């Protein structure tokens, strides 16, 4: 065989090896779980498992929307909510036609403990409405002109109906 034929044969062999390697890599990538889906399938060891029996204010994000005519009401309410220990979400105007006297808490999840905790922060008579409309991140609060502020002795946490297990990374 001449030198040219040997070079061509070696080049083809190297290219076939690279092609086979890429095919294996592509197949593994194609059959691997999607990012973000791995947490649902993972199992925790005893040291990594965290069981929560309570939901605390710092774990709940709240967005506030002004359904009244007072300028800056949503912003000042979000400042009060953040000072009370909740995480701040968005502020803005409520959807047109929303009628709110004092305050209403909106959630997209029935029996949402986060929405119940937010409602308690505004007082015992605050209604929680389950709706398909999600206005901002976290729990949505619609405030009206008669809002006077947060309830001073509202609970800072709420007991969950059932304990929630989560996996916590151990470093």
Secondary structure: helix percent:
25-40%
Oligomer: single chain
Main beta sheet, described? 5 strands, mixed
**Overall pLDDT metric:** 86
Q: Kindly estimate the percentage of residues that lie in beta strands according to DSSP.
A: 25-35%
List the strand order in the largest sheet.
Answer: 3-2-6-4-5
Number of beta-strand segments: 7
SSE-based structural type: alpha/beta
Unreliable stretches (pLDDT < 50, length at least 5) are none
- Rg calculated over all Cα atoms: 27 Å
Helix and strand sequence: HHEEHEEHEEE
What best-fitting shape do the alpha-carbon axes yield?
Answer: elongated
Distance between the termini: 60 Å
Summarize the entry for a quick read.
The protein has 171 residues and is α/β, with parallel strands linked by helices.
What does this structure look like?
With 171 residues, this protein is an alpha/beta fold. The chain has 4 helices and 7 strands. It has helices at 3-31, 38-41, 73-83, 113-122; strands at 49-56, 61-66, 87-93, 103-107, 127-130, 139-143, 157-167. A 5-stranded mixed sheet has the order 3-2-6-4-5, covered by helices on one side. It has a two-stranded antiparallel ribbon with strand order 1-7. The chain is elongated, with a radius of gyration of 27 Å. It starts with a helix and ends with a strand. The model has no long low-confidence stretch (mean pLDDT 86).
């Amino acid at each position: 065989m001449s030198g040219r034929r040997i070079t061509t044969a070696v080049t083809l062999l190297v290219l076939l090896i690279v092609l086979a390697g890429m095919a294996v890599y592509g197949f593994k990538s194609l059959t691997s779980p999607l990012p973000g889906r791995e947490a649902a399938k993972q199992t925790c060891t005893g040291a990594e498992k965290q069981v929560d029996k309570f939901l605390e204010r710092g774990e709940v994000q709240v967005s506030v929307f002004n359904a009244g005519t007072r300028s800056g009401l949503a912003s000042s309410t979000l400042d009060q909510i953040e000072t009370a220990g909740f995480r701040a979400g968005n502020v803005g105007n409520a959807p047109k036609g929303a009628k709110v006297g004092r305050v209403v808490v909106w959630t997209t999840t029935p029996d949402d403990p986060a929405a119940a905790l937010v409602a308690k922060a505004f007082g015992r008579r605050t209604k929680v409405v389950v709706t398909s409309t999600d206005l901002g991140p976290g729990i949505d609060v619609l405030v009206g002109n008669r809002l006077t502020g947060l309830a001073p002795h509202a609970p800072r946490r709420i007991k969950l109906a059932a304990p929630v297990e989560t996996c916590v990374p151990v470093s």
